[in-house]
Amino acid sequence: MIKFLDLKAINAQYQQELKDACSRVIDSGWYIMGGELEAFEKEFAKYCGVKYAIGVANGLDALILSIRAWKEMGKLQIGDEVIVPANTYIASILAISENGLIPVLVEPDPETFNISPENVRAAITDKTKAILPVHLYGLISPMPELIDIASNHNLLVLEDCAQAHGATILDKKVGSWGNAGAFSFYPGKNLGALGDAGIITTNDIKFAKIVRALSNYGSYEKYKNDYKGVNSRLDEIQAAMLRCKLKYLELETENRRKIATLYMESISNPNVQLPKVFDYENHVWHLFVVKVKARKSFVEYLRENGIETLIHYPIPPHKQRAYKEINERKYSITEKLHNEVVSLPISQILDMSSVNYIIEIINKWEGN
Ligand SMILES: *Cc1c(COP(=O)(O)O)cnc(C)c1O
Question: Which domain holds residue 218?
């Protein structure tokens, strides 16, 4: 069976280094907010090309605390509107509603699946205060255009970078375009911890300080609480794991690009629609997503041939019970996508002979 994602094999590549790092933390006797976190934050900020990176407990908290910090700074308030793609993982939208702001869902560009600047422009009202682009599947959103719109309308930009560590446009990485970027290091992401972790990137020192305080009980100074904060910290063990793995991220992304290129050049079944790629360097291929009308039989056929696939995602956020107040809304591009997408295996360690086998099996499929 070709697994969709083999986390054990991914981390086994660096087994000794990860174990050594773990021992280093155990032996240090310091487990929260110590040297590993401080070093990782510096290394990750440098990697992204920003001044500050603030570790938090996970990607959802990175999004929630960024918005929360802007509320504390008086830049956002309850009831403000935030424009977000309708076809995203639900976390992007939860972060907005959790803060008492209004998610304004917009249809994606049907070619790239990413947020459409045209639809963003059309959705702007007097209450719009921010845009939350999601670099879905590893493809960076059209940031130059979005930044332009944001500066014309005085909007904040929060990038959801959970699927796109290291993706660039014009040599500028995700997380360095907006006012802030939120990353997840969930184990299956391109840069994955061995547990939960997340980080916020920014060039705004005031924002950075508030986010840090919010993630640590609203406190700048021990036992003094300036905000009603939360406990959302990136612990030393995970920071140490991430420091090891960050070193190999670029190399690993290269393997994803090789696989994606092979898929793009060799899948020739007319019933399997390939993603549109305009520039390979802008993409870090967190997922390789094709569209197939007869999805059920395609997935079944691949499974019978020993190939595991997943669907990202089967139900759009506006159709979830959690958002029953907007279940009746119609986002037809988003809904069609959710009915047709299939994610093929891709990872930093998937080998080319498996990829060639997957291509051969797909090209033999006679369904439609
Ligand atoms: C994974 C993911 C998140 C959330 O990250 P967690 O670390 O699981 O909280 C947010 N947004 C997107 C687009 C994601 O894929």
Answer: 7-106+113-243
